[in-house]
Amino acid sequence: MERDTVSGLDAVDETATTAITRGAGASVPEWWAYAREFPRWYVWQGVAGHYYARVPGSSPPRLVRALSAEELREEIVRAELRRPVPSRSRFRNHCA
Predict the structure, then answer these.
(1) pLDDT tens readout for residues 15-24
(2) Cα–Cα distance between 68 and 3 in angstroms, integer?
(3) Largest separation between any pair of C-alpha atoms in the chain
């Protein structure tokens, strides 16, 4: 059983793409086209062919999944839009 994983900017390194080739018919994973857009996301393809992505160390955990790389990109965009924005303290200008 073989599993390809992609993480951050390492995924789009040109030397890495040539080092990972596994024979004459090897190709670059579909997700690599979108890897530069989401450098914090760790992406892998499951046994059944589904794509999964998560942000390591996030709290609460952020995980999305999709059937294709294009759908996974859309799910990540949605997850980024739902991400809570840290609130500012109302006392920031009144601290001594």
Answers:
(1) 444 444 445 5
(2) 16
(3) 67
Query: Dihedral angle at the C-alpha atoms of 71, 72, 75, 79, nearest 10 degrees?
Result: -170
pTM over 0.70: no
Question: Does the structure show a pLDDT above 60 at 53?
Answer: yes
Long-range residue pairs from 33-42, CB within 8 A, at least 24 positions apart, any chain: 33/69, 34/69, 34/72, 34/73, 35/6, 35/8, 35/9, 35/11, 36/9, 36/12, 37/73, 38/73, 38/76, 38/80, 39/8, 39/9, 40/8, 41/76, 42/5, 42/6, 42/7, 42/8
